[in-house]
Amino acid sequence: GAFPVILGHEATGIVESIGAGVTRVKVGDVVIPCYTP
């Protein structure tokens, strides 16, 4: 394939802000979203 390319389907991050209805995470939490098509 051609570069640049994104390998894999997972990522990590730190929650910076949340919406009014969000209850399962809080600001500062480390999260690991996993995209599965």
Automatic annotation (TrEMBL):
GO CC, alphabetical: cytosol
Pfam family membership, one: ADH_N
Cofactor(s) listed in the protein's UniProt record: Zn(2+)
In what residue span(s) does the Alcohol dehydrogenase-like N-terminal domain sit?
A: 3-32
Q: Which residues form the signal peptide?
A: none
GO BP, one example?
A: formaldehyde catabolic process
Q: What are the protein's UniProt keywords?
A: Metal-binding, NAD, Oxidoreductase, Zinc
SUPFAM superfamilies (alphabetical): GroES-like
PROSITE patterns documented for this protein: ADH_ZINC
Offer an example of a GO molecular function term for this protein: S-(hydroxymethyl)glutathione dehydrogenase [NAD(P)+] activity
* Record protein name field: Alcohol dehydrogenase-like N-terminal domain-containing protein
Organism from which the protein derives: Nymphaea colorata
What lineage is this protein's organism placed in?
A: Eukaryota, Viridiplantae, Streptophyta, Embryophyta, Tracheophyta
